[in-house]
Amino acid sequence: MPVMTFIEAIRSALHDAMAADDRIMVLGEDVAVKGGVFLATEGLLARFGEHRVIDMPIAECGIVGAAIGASLHGLLPVAEIQFADYIYPAIDQILNEAARFRYRSNGDWSCPIVVRAPCGAGIHGALYHSQSVERLFTSTPGIKVVIPSTPFDAKGLLIAAIYDPDPVIFFEHKQLYRSVRGDVPEGLYREPIGKAVVRRNGSDMSVFSYGLMVHHSLTAAKELEAEGVDVEVIDLRTLAPLDRDAILSSVKKTGRALIVHEDVLTGGIGGEIAALIAEHAFEYLDAPVRRLASPDLFATPFADPLEDYFMLNPQKIAAAMYDLARY
Questions:
Q1: Catalytic residue among 129, 215, 216, 261
Q2: How many domains, the chain?
Q3: Where is the Transketolase-like pyrimidine-binding domain (predicted)?
Q4: For position 65, which CATH number holds?
Q5: Staple partner for 67: which of 26, 113, 310, 324, CB 3.0–4.6 Å?
């Protein structure tokens, strides 16, 4: 089984899916000639041609709008938004059109599009290249939101997203692109959307996270292991729909819950998970549900010390774990 980086797994998913199914197309800014700003689509133009790998204008509303139109005519478009920070002009097309096609047509039409977008901070990208915007999409019915943490999941979940009959927002943390490697099968395989996985079994505390924060949480959990605290780490993988059974099962086992995400605290998915636990597993809790997230600031700062203050890291997560364990 080949070992791939995260970005190679994304590229492999697109290549293998496009080779197997000529309905699949890729469109976005610089995805063709350049191969994408992070080279996720490198080589696809030469392999599949200009009718299936299309450079689009700098108009995110048009990129997603064209993808929606193509999907309604039998294609399976994968639209790339160059950075998650640029997705705002496309929100009307995503939330007001794509998410509602099944309902507005009484089930006669679906909108099988994928919108890929690199997200996250820590690369000195400052205001417009660092945002985590998943909270904007997790509250709208009809949209699935996927954020993988491993190369294996990146490929398997992307292929599953391409063949999902409804729109999927697929976020990829930029720090993972070349920092994480793992086994990735060749060919087509699918990981189920809406299913979390246990990355580390534990008995004293449940930590729920996704994307880059899964890796930071696993590092922090190893630190607490030396102190006799056994932490279970759950990789949510999908934020909409949430895997309610996995969340509640873990909390009922450990009695403590910490939710870790890079998105800002207010309005983040952590609040929804905390409410789910409070409503359905309150009697199992030995401590209040805790959330650890980025501060509610206007944007990620550019200066190194300020960016470090904004960003979560294993040390901050370990400190939150210690605090919850001592409650």
A1: 129
A2: 2
A3: 4-179
A4: 3.40.50.970
A5: 113
Q: Which of 103, 252, 237, 266 is nearest to 173 (CA)?
A: 237
pLDDT surpassing 90 at residue 90: yes
Task: Check residue 125 and give its pLDDT.
Answer: 84
Q: What average pLDDT does the segment 138-161 reach? A: 97
Q: Give the list of residues 6+ apart from residue 124 with CB closer than 8 angstroms, or none.
A: 302, 304, 307
pLDDT at 128: 87
pLDDT for res 124: 83
Instruction: Quote the pTM value.
Output: 0.96
Task: Tell me how far apart the alpha carbons of residues 270 and 143 are, in angstroms, rounded to a whole number.
Answer: 18
| Structural domain for 53, as ranges | 3-183
Q: How many CB atoms lie within 10 A of CB 74?
A: 8
Strand order in the sheet with 24-28: 53-55, 24-28, 76-80, 114-119, 168-173, 144-146, 238-240
Q: Kindly state whether residues 253 and 134 are assigned to the same domain.
A: no
Packing angle, helices 314-326 and 212-225, rounded to 10: 50
- Region 171-176 average pLDDT: 97
On whether residue 316 sits in a domain, the answer given is yes
One domain for residues 168 and 201? no
Query: Is residue 189 assigned to a domain?
Result: no
| 86 vs 92: CA distance, rounded Å | 13
By the 8 A CB rule, do 232 and 200 touch?
Answer: yes
Length of the chain: 327
129 is an active site residue: yes
Q: Which token pair is 69?
A: 């139109």
pLDDT digits (tens, 9 = 90+) for 246-291: 999 999 999 999 999 999 999 999 999 999 999 999 999 999 999 9
For residue 170, give both structure tokens.
């697929």
Strand-pair partners of 259:
208, 291
Do 78 and 56 form a contact (C-beta atoms < 8 A)?
no
CA distances from 88 to 59, 161, 163 (A): 11, 21, 25
